[in-house]
């Protein structure tokens, strides 16, 4: 019956991460998956989460289903983190949010919803984008196209070409944007650039779908959401897929949210109903545990402050690792490529290393980067940064020699 099923080619991130787990070489370094590790290479349990967990009922509690839209308090706190308390209050009932299975779950429910009500629309994603965007939106039945984004020459954004492309799109096209910490390049739009986008969405009658998986890992919770808030404030029809999986270090609990900014409360209520329908069709309703922990932290002032503080520490550690690698590569790789380690933001740096170099790093040095040359700087530590720098120097030198 199943003999015609072809083998799965694997996922560029998750399959590589699985390969890393089975690598027995003691010097191995995981710079592939977008997961934050501390300086000892461990996945942190955040202090605020630990405290929220310890106040949990110790006796076995009942395990009812959550509503399709998820945990009510979690939905509230998610809105506050994504939109900020002030804008959330001003948007009031025009804003609707459901709990989802991570940011990916939010993208999937949003994609199914959009496909149902905008069947003719195409999706436009940045070039390049997170590989799974294409898989996910194509899986929902969309054609996925790309607008110009990253400039490999300058290491910046091809903003003029991006605007020109968006300004030619058919009405109701869906434009997928990264709120912050662009995955895979680490190159974000500036505040001014976000402001220039808004009028195009109105002029061309476009739908914005913003993916915010790394809030807090760029410049801060509020700073990283500035683009989202700007478009929401401007009244652009907007979906936001957000995630607490990473900024709460609760990856396996799949803590995401999908928010939609509508034109009226009545519209938002109907949208919420149809999002519920898509949730029901996909997984019925979301799980309780992560949502309970997060709502407990974010509805307690002291725990929220502790969480924000720890997130700041994570951000600072990644910045110091960026600087450390930048310093150690001095004279070993081209200065313009080296500058990217400190100019790019968030978990990822687009190193400019090609597939051959990435393969050599894995095969000869047990250092894992994604094939595109994307490095997750959160996998660097005081104890491996010298090794990573000297290994990059070896593969970069071989490439220069080959070209010479
Ligand atoms: C990544 O890009 O590494 C993360 O978002 C994890 C994933 O699911 O791909």
Automatic annotation (TrEMBL):
Molecular function terms from GO: transaminase activity
Pfam families for this protein: Aminotran_1_2
Required cofactor(s): pyridoxal 5'-phosphate
Keyword hit for Zinc-finger: no
EC supergroup of this enzyme: transferase
Alphabetized InterPro entries for the sequence: Aminotransferase_I/II_large, Asp_trans, PyrdxlP-dep_Trfase, PyrdxlP-dep_Trfase_major, PyrdxlP-dep_Trfase_small
Top-level taxon: Bacteria
Record carries keyword Transferase: yes
Keyword entries, A-Z: Aminotransferase, Pyridoxal phosphate, Transferase
The enzyme's E.C. designation: 2.6.1.57
Annotated Aminotransferase class I/classII large domain residues: 27-392
Family of this protein: Belongs to the class-I pyridoxal-phosphate-dependent aminotransferase family.
Listed NCBIfam families: PRK09257.1
Subunit structure, as described in the record: Homodimer.
Protein name as catalogued: Aromatic-amino-acid aminotransferase
Lineage of producing organism: Bacteria, Pseudomonadati, Pseudomonadota, Betaproteobacteria, Burkholderiales
């Amino acid at each position: 019956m199943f003999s015609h099923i072809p083998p799965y080619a694997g996922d560029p991130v998750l399959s590589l991460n699985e390969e890393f787990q089975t690598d027995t070489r003691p010097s191995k370094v995981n710079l592939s998956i977008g997961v934050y590790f501390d300086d000892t290479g461990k996945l942190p349990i955040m202090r605020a989460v630990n405290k929220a967990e310890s106040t949990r009922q110790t006796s076995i509690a009942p395990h009812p289903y959550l509503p399709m839209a998820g945990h009510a308090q979690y939905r509230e706190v998610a809105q506050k983190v994504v939109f900020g308390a002030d804008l959330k209050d001003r948007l009031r009932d025009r804003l609707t949010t459901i709990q989802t299975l991570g940011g990916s779950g939010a993208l999937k429910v949003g994609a199914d919803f959009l496909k149902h009500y905008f069947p003719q629309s195409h999706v436009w994603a940045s070039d390049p984008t997170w590989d799974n965007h294409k898989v996910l939106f194509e899986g929902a039945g969309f054609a996925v196209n790309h607008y110009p984004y990253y400039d490999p020459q300058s290491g910046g954004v091809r903003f003029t070409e991006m605007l020109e492309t968006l300004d030619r799109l058919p009405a109701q096209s869906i434009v997928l944007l990264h709120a912050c910490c662009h995955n895979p390049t680490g190159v974000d739009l500036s505040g001014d650039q976000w402001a220039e986008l808004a009028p195009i969405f109105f002029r061309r009658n476009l739908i914005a779908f913003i993916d915010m998986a790394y809030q807090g890992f760029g410049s801060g919770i509020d700073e990283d959401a500035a683009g989202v808030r700007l478009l929401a404030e401007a009244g652009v029809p907007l979906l936001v897929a957000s995630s607490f999986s990473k900024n709460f270090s609760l990856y396996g609990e799949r803590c995401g949210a999908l928010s939609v900014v509508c034109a009226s409360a009545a519209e938002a209520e109907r949208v919420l109903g149809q999002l519920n329908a898509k949730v029901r069709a996909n997984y019925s309703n979301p799980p309780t545990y992560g949502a309970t922990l997060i709502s407990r932290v974010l509805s307690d002032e002291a725990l929220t402050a502790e969480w924000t503080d720890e997130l700041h520490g994570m951000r600072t550690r990644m910045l110091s690792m960026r600087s450390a690698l930048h310093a150690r590569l001095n004279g070993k790789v081209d200065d313009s490529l080296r500058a990217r380690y400190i100019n790019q933001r968030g978990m990822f740096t687009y190193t400019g290393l090609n597939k051959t170099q990435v393969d050599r790093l894995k095969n000869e040095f047990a250092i894992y980067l994604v094939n595109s040359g994307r490095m997750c700087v959160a996998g660097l530590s005081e104890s491996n940064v010298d090794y990573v720098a000297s290994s990059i120097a070896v593969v970069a030198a071989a490439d220069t020699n080959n070209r010479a």
